[in-house]
Amino acid sequence: MKRNFQFFVITSICIISIILMTIPISSLSVNHSSFYSIKYKNFGATSPDIIEMIKKVNKTILRNHVQTIQDFGPHPTGSEELKLVGDYIYNELSKTKLPVEYLSWKYEKDTGENIVATLNGIGKTDGIIIVCAHYDTIRISPGADDDGSGVAIVLMLAEIMSNYSFNTTIKFILFSGEEQGLLGSSVYAKNAKENNENIIGVLALDKVGYAVTAEEGNKIIHHSNIESKWMVDISSEVASNYYDYIELEVIHWSEDPGSDHLSFVNEGYHGTDFVRYAINPYYHTSEDIIENMNITYLTKVCNLTLATISKIACLNPIINSEDLKIIMKGRILSRPAQIYLKIENNKHGIDTANVTINVKVSNILRNQYVQATKKHYNIPCKWFLTKEIDEYFEFLVGGRKYNRGLFKFEVIIKGINDDIHLYKKQITYGWILNKLRVIMFPRL
């Protein structure tokens, strides 16, 4: 009887192996990297498209935006002047042909409107990048630097970037209620969280148009908490790679408690802000006017913001899904049973891969996860990891006993942060002969 059973098992394995060998390779190993509309090009440290966009930044248009906003006079939230500024912003964004909308908000007794223009991404991701500023002022200030400077940059970015395609959706947002306690952005961020919006990063522009000395004109502060520092790393990288076009040094400072990005940080999102390096003596006074600004400095900050957002939104990704290699093995007839996973980054010399990794081992006939037993614990074979992969990452599940039967070994890689565009899925199959021995069928 025992000999007949062994013959049955061996025969079954052979038959299943033959069947699996007839399955098309695409059904065993699925690579979804083909969704790119813009393929990686070997540009080295810089992208011609980003340089082309930077060259379209117009110093005169930036000045005109600030001047127009200032000429409405002080425009605090709730005032008729703010409505006029909002109409100006809405009309300027509408010229880009992007969909633009007013989003009304209410916070206790205060009400206002946020203005949002959306450039939809072309990649298979629901990720969103937000670049924002606030368009309200305190009651005595015409708000040239605070925050006509940030508004001018957001309008310039929308005008230029709307003519390009990005893997990730970009939202250009102008908030009201900032001077009263980040009210407009707070309501927006709470709603986004309730709607499970996948906002991967927020970059706010607040007071970015004042500099007097050469040192002040060559530096920009990038505030962030620890979790959001990856955005600072990117701004620093592009500031270095495109220095001839930006001419700014990025200075990393800790979290800024007074700008709209904080509303998103409070909801668990990543958020940072740019702020001018100098101390502006006209801040929150009636003398916050364009004559006390440095438009050349404002233009530099615009260039830096443009390159940073383009890099995060993956105009031309340095690393793509084809650069990740998945190696899946079973220790054939090993004691104890082992399952092994290795993910290689073939472009580790120039970029790391920020990813989540889903590893699943499931019984095909039972339609449930394989149970692994280690000591006295039964654990479903379903693991979720978050890693920054430099050269490679190895994951070994050894010394386990497993439920017997035909199984599917599935690995799904999804990019996060600046690598949101990454996606790769690979499947292979195997047979658990008994609780200690695993055969992994070779992938063709």
Produce the secondary structure layout.
Blueprint: H1 2-22, H2 25-28, H3 48-55, H4 59-71, H5 80-94, E1 100-107, E2 110-119, E3 128-134, H6 144-161, E4 169-175, H7 183-194, E5 199-205, E6 219-224, H8 229-241, H9 243-246, E7 249-253, H10 261-265, E8 271-276, H11 295-312, E9 324-330, E10 337-345, E11 353-363, E12 368-369, E13 371-374, E14 377-380, E15 382-389, E16 392-402, E17 405-415, E18 423-434, E19 437-440
Parallel strand pairs: 3-4, 3-5, 5-8, 6-7
Antiparallel strand pairs: 1-2, 2-4, 6-8, 9-10, 10-16, 11-12, 11-15, 11-17, 13-14, 13-16, 17-18, 18-19
List keywords for this structure.
444 residues, alpha+beta, Immunoglobulin-like, Aminopeptidase, 2 domains, eight-stranded mixed sheet, six-stranded antiparallel sheet, 11 helices
Overview of this protein structure:
The longest helix is centred in the N-terminal third of the chain and has 21 residues, at 2-22. The protein folds into two domains: 16-36 and 319-440, Sandwich (Immunoglobulin-like), CATH 2.60.40.10; 48-312, Zn peptidases (Aminopeptidase, 3-Layer(aba) Sandwich). It has helices at 2-22, 25-28, 48-55, 59-71, 80-94, 144-161, 183-194, 229-241, 243-246, 261-265, 295-312; strands at 100-107, 110-119, 128-134, 169-175, 199-205, 219-224, 249-253, 271-276, 324-330, 337-345, 353-363, 368-369, 371-374, 377-380, 382-389, 392-402, 405-415, 423-434, 437-440. It is built from eleven helices and 19 strands. It is elongated and about 80 Å long.
